[in-house]
Amino acid sequence: MKFFIDTANVDDIREAHSMGLIEGVTTNPSLIAKVGGDDLEVLEAICSVVEGPVSAEVIATDAEGMAREGQRLAGIADNIVIKVPLTVDGLKAARALRSEGIGVNVTLCFNAVQALMAAKAGATFVSPFVGRIDDISYRGMDTVREIRTIYDNYGFDTEILVASIRNPLHVLEAALMGADAATVPPAVLFKLVSHPLTDIGLERFLADHKKAKGS
Length: 215
Fold this sequence. Notes:
- The protein is an alpha/beta fold.
- The protein has a single domain, classed as Aldolase class I (TIM Barrel, Alpha-Beta Barrel), CATH 3.20.20.70.
- It contains eleven helices and eight strands.
- It has helices at residues 10-18, 29-35, 39-49, 63-74, 88-99, 112-120, 130-135, 140-154, 168-176, 186-191, 196-212; strands at residues 2-6, 24-26, 54-57, 80-85, 104-109, 125-128, 159-162, 181-184.
- It has an eight-stranded parallel β-barrel with strand order 1-2-3-4-5-6-7-8, surrounded by six helices.
- α4 (63-74) links the parallel β3 and β4.
- The protein is globular, with a radius of gyration of 19 Å.
């Protein structure tokens, strides 16, 4: 399973990239607003760090506006992927952009039938928001399992990019279900490396080394 990092913070992206943890980045207008600066410059900086897909989200809500904005964003770098919402206009824009060879991430997916529609529109990625589904007392990971089954049944190329991840367990379940990728906020991504037994084991190794050296 591929790991994407869900942030516009270039320092966090560089740190994750240096550890070999990520294959791509997802952003949105809210994440870019948090770091400040010009939107295009922030996206250019991110694309200079990672070679994999960098999702840049449109703010238009009509199909023509989304397609126009997506074309402009795609001009930033070859690895830009355009995020459009899972709406009727979003699917129209996705189809138009894909016809021009521009990658599309259909976002704000909340059930498997929506994901089926995204795949039929030719989406490069579909992003089920598992944390937000959990918030309304449904199991977000059940949605991922259903999408995986449907895509496998019909041989769709659209990749399942699990989003709205809240904890390491979401990452584990996504991997077990065969999701193609998960986009993870920095705080969760760096936790994936940690385990208390690893820390304890390292402390013991160092203590034994000091004892053996007589220090």
